[in-house]
Amino acid sequence: MKSSHSLFLALAPALCLCAAPPAVAQQAPGNPASAASAPKASLTVTTAHPVQSSLAVRLAANGNIAPWQEASVGSEANGLRLAEVRVSVGDVVQRGQVLAVFASESVQADVAQAGAAVAEAQAQAADAAANAERARAFESNGMMSKQQISLLLTGEQTARARLESARAVLAVQQIRLKNTQVLAPDSGVISARNATVGAVLGAGTELFRLIRQARLEWRAEVIATELARVKPGTPVTLSASSGTRLTGTVRMVAPTVDPQTRNALVYVDLAITPAIATTVKAGMFARGEFQLGASAALTVPQQAVVARDGFNYVFKVAANRRVSQQRVEVGRRIAEQVEITKGLLIEDTVAVVGAGFLNDGDAVRVNNAAP
Q1: How far apart are CA 168 and CA 156, in angstroms?
Q2: Which of 63, 97, 332, 333 is the one with CA 20 to 30 A from 105?
């Protein structure tokens, strides 16, 4: 009995090991734990397909707003005192309007003196003409010598020449009198004033500067390689530094290119209304775009493009509702659409609303129902 009991104790561990159940039990297909291990959607998104659209082709440029043409209004009177200045900077003037007046007393005296000289010359010319007429009458009967007749005829011509000279002097003095009033050479806006009441000025001294017809232009700097795309008549939209939006039309392209900057000037006539004229001034900086037409483009909604680490990405949604991050290159933007120039096909599906919260490989729930 004692030996049998010892044999049983020796075999007991082996028997217990053989009867032990498997360490890992296999889960049934319908087990809730199996469903819990499946991937869950991390976010609800909306999707869209790229669309083939027609987008405007624009060329951006910078430049300054400048007067179309400026007129320099100077003094033609020499050594006269400026008695009156009737306009100032910013005044709108009309062609022929009096801008300033010089003291004219001395000039009026010179005109009167010249007029008297003309009257004297006329009397002398009339007397010389009468003498010449009598000489011609006596020439045929020989009652006067040829020398006397010649002197009288010459006297007539001399008197006529003196009369013309006196009339010319009178005309000069009348012009001097007229020049005592400084007139606007064209309609426009006074942009600068150097005239000071009481100053004695020489001929040619600039008194005012005038923006002719109040016309302004935008002088855009365009790189030489883009000049061929800009033609006269091209419409332009621009924004001045004051925030005012303007429209214009290309008038001409400069015939030369700056050898230092490799840029050329494009002159754009601006449409200036009275309301705009108060906020847009010559010398302002402006950014603008030349409207060069339209071209086909592949576009997606702006929300679908996510900027990360200096690059642009979209998230393509596969049939299994998993997203993959795709790097793309963007181009033009119009309204809520962005042009995709590289990295996307028209048959792809991209996440739109919620794309900014996704990561590569996320599972999503798609809900494109209208709100």
Answers
A1: 19
A2: 97
